[in-house]
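Deliverable D4.2, example record:
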Amino acid sequence: MSQDIRIAIHHRPERFSEQWIAYCEQHHIAYECVDCYQSDIVQTLRSFDALMWHWSHRDEKALLFARQMITSLQRMGLVVFPDIQTCWHYDDKLG
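Output generated by the structure prediction step:
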C-alpha cells in the first residue's frame, strides 16, 4: 500500500463510498472507513490527509452538521470531498 496519503472514507453500503474503496484498493491507496457521526471524529481525522463523505440531503443527522464539519476540517488543512464550495449549495435551490 502507498503510504504517501491516508484517506478516510465514510462508508455507506451501496453508495459512492463503495466505488471510492474499490478505487483505493485497485490503486494501492491507503484508506480507512470511518464513521463521521462518532463523537471523536475530528480527533480521528487528524491522522488522515483527506476525507470523502457523500452525505445525503435526506439524512437529518447530516443536515444538522455536515456543512459545518466539512468547513472546519477543510480549514484544519484536510482535503475534503465534497469541499466547502460544493457543500454550501448542495441541494439548496436558493444557494
